[in-house]
TrEMBL record:
SUPFAM superfamilies associated with the record: Sema domain (SSF101912)
Protein name according to UniProt: Sema domain-containing protein
Domain Sema: 13-387
CDD domains hit by this protein: Sema_plexin_like
InterPro entries: Plexin, Semap_dom, Semap_dom_sf, WD40/YVTN_repeat-like_dom_sf
PANTHER family reported in the protein's UniProt record: PLEXIN, PLEXIN A, ISOFORM A
Keywords: Differentiation, Signal
Pfam families: Sema
Length: 387
């Protein structure tokens, strides 16, 4: 079994209490003319203009830097059926009005565009103008994100093929939904092109490889991977996930894992996973990661972690599984904790596991991934790792 990376320090264990929040300060409210209350899914702020974009169910909002509502776009509901492909519908498909749940909202600063992906039509994406979201530059018929209301999707832009770090791609992690014959073509993790001519296509493809990773067809229905957060750090792209520990046991505990690919790897040979643990001083395990953020530490935290204030740090909030089912539940309880990891320690742990792997023992944490990569003894690494 491969080793897990542990948090160096546990900062807080937070017990969430129900009840009114004292001193809540609402800056501004806005009302949708169509009186149905729609759930907000994603929010991004343009770091250059301060404009705010909100992806919601059936709506996309553009707000000014002082939070005045400027534009409301209607993205759904539309007639749809999972039996339709992105291109067309068989005559047997029964279409019905379906909500469009926003699954990804990403600013592409290179082209100053907003990328918006929704659950409708197999999970396609559109490119919109950041100055005016009503202006749609491109709608791409390519299944990119999850195509139902609840399955997870994480998307972020970072360096990738053909020429990193100059060229940027969109990294996407998607939970498999077995609701349509077309979903087996959507990779669990992929790097997608942001070039106008091949927008959202897999950045690099070859006959059996490319910048994509599929989950084994036997495992993907019973052992779904939930994508929670994604980020880039020092030449690697990472995803935080929750998944079952074993693919061979029906009652497997749920754990959190960190998935990593090397940004200059055109074939995802470098795809590796390691468990991520958050355990408090009493040995209580917070097994389900709920949210993450990569930033820089303050000077106290940096010295505590033995790193500099310029090094990356991962802040992650975890919950314990619901008490009744122990770690066997993917549902979070009300007990949660914040764990902090230095990316330096995370890189070291990946390196250790990969070294163990290339001496022929353990695995790359790829129980569910097809084709499965068992560790084989090699004399040299097939890809480079910057330590
Ligand atoms: C955005 O563009 C639409 C259509 O091109 C136009 O009708 C609308 O007035 C524009 N909105 C703003 C706030 O510029
Ligand atoms: C979406 O798909 C996932 C994975 O198959 C499934 O667990 C979930 O229940 C589905 N959600 C809805 C609303 O159908």
């Amino acid at each position: 079994m491969i080793g897990a990376v542990r948090s160096t320090i546990l900062v807080w264990a937070v017990w969430l209490c129900a009840g009114p929040t004292a001193g809540a300060n609402i800056v501004r409210t806005f009302r949708d003319d169509v009186h149905t209350v729609e759930k907000f899914n994603h929010l991004v702020v343009d770091k250059n203009t301060g404009r705010v974009y909100i992806g919601a169910v059936n709506r996309l909002y553009q707000l000014s830097p002082d939070l005045e509502l400027v534009i409301t776009e209607f993205t759904g509901p539309h007639d749809d059926s999972p039996d339709c492909s992105v291109i067309d519908c068989p005559s047997s498909a029964v279409k019905k009005p379906t909500d469009n749940v926003n699954k990804a909202l990403v600013i592409d600063y290179t082209t100053t565009r907003l990328i918006v992906c929704g659950s409708l039509f197999q999970g396609i994406c559109a490119v919109r103008n950041l100055h005016n979201i009503s202006d749609v530059a491109q709608v791409v018929k390519e299944a990119v994100v999850a195509n139902n209301a609840t399955a997870s999707t994480v998307a972020f832009i970072a360096p990738g093929p053909p020429n990193p770090p100059v060229s940027q791609v969109m990294y996407v992690g998607v939970t498999y939904t077995g609701n349509s014959p077309y979903r087996s073509e959507v990779p669990a993790v992929s790097s997608r092109s942001l070039d106008k001519e091949k927008m959202f296509m897999i950045a690099r493809t070859a006959v059996t490889t490319g910048t994509r990773m599929f989950v084994n067809s036997l495992a993907r229905e019973r052992y779904p991977i939930n994508y929670v957060y994604g980020f880039s750090s020092e030449g690697f792209s990472y995803f935080l996930t929750t998944q079952m520990k074993y693919s061979t046991q029906p009652q497997s505990p749920f754990i959190s894992k960190l998935v990593r690919v090397c940004q200059d790897d055109e074939n995802y040979y470098s795809y590796t996973e390691i468990p991520l643990e958050c355990i408090d001083s009493e040995g209580k395990k917070y097994n389900l990661v709920q949210a993450g953020y990569v930033g820089k530490p303050g000077s106290d935290l940096a010295s505590n972690l033995g790193i500099t204030a310029q090094d990356d740090v991962l802040f992650a909030v975890f919950s314990e599984s619901e008490q009744s089912e122990g770690e066997g539940s993917s549902k979070p309880s009300r007990f949660s904790a914040l764990c902090v990891y230095s990316l330096k320690a995370i890189r070291r742990k990946f390196m250790q596991n990969i070294k163990t792997c290339f001496t022929g023992s353990g695995d790359r944490g790829l129980d569910f991934i097809s084709p499965s990569h068992n560790c084989v003894q090699t004399v040299s690494f097939p890809y480079t790792i910057s330590a």
